[in-house]
Design brief:
By secondary structure, this protein is of the alpha/beta class. The protein is built from 15 helices and 23 strands. The chain has 2 domains: about 270 residues, Aldehyde Dehydrogenase, Chain A, domain 1, CATH 3.40.605.10; about 180 residues, Aldehyde Dehydrogenase, Chain A, domain 2 (3-Layer(aba) Sandwich), CATH 3.40.309. The N and C termini lie far apart (about 60 Å).
C-alpha cells in the first residue's frame, strides 16, 4: 500500500475527490518548531452547500447498502489507518504539538473506533412490539438519519472526529466533517484518505476545513439533520442555539473542569501518578484533564511535594526533539489565556509551588497550592499544564467542592475503601467517574459524555451511537391469518 503524502493534497478540500476550496488556503504552523506543516484548503459556504447536496444524494444509496458492505468499509478503513499510521502520527505531532506517545495512542484509539463502528451493523436494529390486531406484525426499527454534520476540535483531532464519523457512516449516513483548520490534515484529510482507500463511495464523506463561518454553514445546511459537535462550551451553546432553532438533533461533547479527589486513606503513590498524568498529559489540553486536585488536609503537604517533584522532572520542548516530555500549547493566544488564569490565581491568593511562566508556546508545568473555591484556577477550565490543589477536611466538604462547577464531564476519587468510593461517585455530578484512576479515560465501547456545561446528555460509543445516528421508525405489516 502506498504511503500517505500530504504534499499531494496541499491546499485542497475533500468533496467528491480532492479539489480547491472556495475559501483559498491557510498555512498550518507547527507549535513545536514554528515551521509550516502544509496549507489547509478552506471551504466556504458554497462548498458546504455543494457538499450537502452531494452527500444527500450519495446517502440514499449508501443507506441501502448491505450491512456486510458497510462493515467491510469500516474494517478496510481501520486496515488503511494501520498501514499509514507512521505518516499520520508524524502529522499529528507537527500539527497539534502531540508527543509521539500521545500521537501513537490517538491512532490506536481511532482504529478502535473504526473496528467498533463496524460492529454496530450487526447489533439489533429494532424491536417487535404487539399491536391490537394479532394478525398484524408491529416493529420499531432504526433507520439512518441522513446527513450528519461533524464539527471536531484540534486537541485530539483524529480520534475526536472519527468517533462520530465512523459510527455515522456505519449506520448508513453520509457525513460533512468540519475539522479545525489548525489540524486539518490529522483531523480531516487522514480520515478522508483511509475511507478512500477502503472503497467508501464518492459523496458519502466530505471534509471541509474552515473557521466558525464554515461550521455554522454546516449546522444551517438544509441537508444536515444531526450535528455532532466537540469543543468549548461557549461554541457548543452557539451550535445548540442554531441547530435547535432548526429542530435538528444535536450531540454536544464540551469542556470540563474535572475534580480529582484524594481521600486521607488513598494510596499516595498511585494518586500522584494519576494526578500528574491527568493535569500534564498533552499539556493539559484535553477536555477530561484533571482541573482541580481536591486533597485531604492530612496528606496535602506530601501530595503537593510529590506533584512538584514530578512537574520539575518534566522537560518542555519540541515533541520531535530527544528528551522532550512536555510539548507546546497550540497557539500564542492559548498560551496567554493560560498565563492570564495563572496570574489571576496568584492574585486571588494561590501559592506557586512550581512553574507559572512560559517561554513562547512552552508553558512550564505549574503546581498551585492553597487554591480556594473563589480562585480563578478553581473556576476556569484552564486547558494548560496547570495543577491547582485545594485542601478539604471532610468527605462532605470534598463532595461540595467537587460539585462546585457548572461542568460535569469526568471525575476521579482515590481511596482504599471501594464501597465508600462508589457511594461518593453516586453523588457526583459527572458523566464518568474513575475509582483510583485518572480523569482521562475513554474507550470505543463506553458511553462517553457529560452533563451540565459539559454536554447535553448525548453519548458517544458502543450501542449508544445508535441513539445519536439513527431515527426510530414504527412499521406495521398485516399478515394472512390461517
Amino acid at each position: 500500500m502506498a504511503r500517505w503524502d500530504i504534499e499531494d493534497i496541499d491546499g485542497l478540500i475533500f468533496s467528491d475527490g480532492w479539489r480547491p476550496g472556495g475559501g483559498g488556503a491557510h498555512p498550518i504552523v507547527s507549535p513545536g518548531d514554528g515551521g509550516v506543516v502544509a496549507h489547509a484548503g478552506l471551504a466556504d459556504e458554497s462548498d458546504v452547500e455543494r457538499a450537502g447536496a452531494s452527500a444527500a444524494a450519495a446517502q440514499a444509496a449508501w443507506g441501502r447498502a448491505s450491512y456486510r458492505t458497510r462493515a467491510d468499509v469500516l474494517l478496510g478503513a481501520a486496515a488503511a489507518l494501520r498501514q499509514i499510521r507512521a505518516e499520520v502520527e508524524h502529522v499529528l505531532i507537527r500539527e497539534s504539538g502531540s508527543l509521539p506517545g500521545k500521537a501513537s495512542h490517538e491512532v490506536d484509539k481511532a482504529i478502535d473506533e473504526l473496528v467498533a463502528a463496524a460492529g454496530l451493523v450487526t447489533m439489533s436494529q429494532g424491536d417487535l412490539l404487539p399491536v391490537e390486531d394479532p394478525s398484524t406484525i408491529g416493529m420499531a426499527r432504526r433507520i439512518p438519519v441522513g446527513v450528519v454534520g461533524v464539527i471536531a476540535p484540534w486537541n485530539a483531532p483524529l480520534m475526536l472526529a472519527i468517533r462520530s464519523v465512523a459510527p455515522a457512516i456505519a449506520l448508513g449516513n453520509a457525513v460533512l466533517l468540519k475539522p479545525d483548520v489548525k489540524t486539518a490534515f490529522s483531523g480531516g484529510a487522514a480520515i478522508a484518505e483511509v475511507f478512500r482507500r477502503a472503497g467508501l463511495p464518492d459523496g458519502v464523506l466530505h471534509v471541509l476545513p474552515g473557521g466558525p463561518e464554515t461550521g455554522e454553514a454546516v449546522v444551517r445546511s438544509p441537508h444536515t439533520t444531526v450535528i455532532s459537535f466537540t469543543g468549548s462550551s461557549a461554541a457548543g451553546r452557539r451550535v445548540g442555539e442554531v441547530a435547535g432553532g432548526l429542530l435538528k438533533r444535536v450531540v454536544l461533547e464540551l469542556g470540563g473542569n474535572n475534580a480529582f479527589v484524594v481521600m486521607a486513606d488513598a494510596d499516595l503513590d498511585r494518586a500522584v501518578a494519576a494526578g500528574v498524568a491527568g493535569s500534564f498529559r498533552h499539556q493539559g489540553q484535553i477536555c477530561m484533564a484533571t482541573g482541580r486536585h481536591l486533597v485531604h488536609e492530612s496528606i496535602a503537604d506530601a501530595y503537593v511535594e510529590r506533584l512538584r517533584a514530578a512537574a520539575a522532572a518534566l522537560v518542555p520542548g519540541d515533541p520531535l526533539a530527544p528528551g522532550t516530555t512536555l510539548g507546546p500549547l497550540i497557539t500564542a493566544a492559548q498560551t496567554e489565556r493560560v498565563h492570564g488564569i495563572v496570574q489571576a490565581a496568584i492574585a486571588d491568593g494561590a501559592l506557586v509551588v512550581h512553574g507559572g511562566a512560559h517561554d513562547g508556546l512552552f508553558y512550564a508545568p505549574t503546581v498551585l497550592d492553597r487554591v480556594d473555591p473563589d480562585n480563578a484556577a478553581f473556576r476556569a477550565e484552564i486547558f494548560g499544564p496547570v495543577a491547582p490543589v485545594t485542601r478539604f477536611r471532610t468527605e462532605e466538604e470534598a463532595l461540595v467542592l467537587a460539585n462546585a462547577s457548572d461542568y460535569g464531564l469526568t471525575a476521579a476519587i482515590h481511596t482504599r475503601d471501594v464501597a465508600r468510593a462508589l457511594g461518593f461517585a453516586a453523588r457526583l455530578r459527572a458523566g464518568m467517574v474513575a475509582v483510583n484512576g485518572q480523569t482521562i479515560y475513554d474507550a470505543a465501547h463506553i458511553p462517553m459524555g457529560g452533563i451540565g456545561a459539559s454536554g447535553n446528555g448525548g453519548r458517544h460509543g458502543g450501542h449508544w451511537n445508535l441513539d445519536e445516528f439513527t431515527y426510530w421508525q414504527w412499521v406495521t405489516v398485516p399478515t394472512i391469518s390461517g
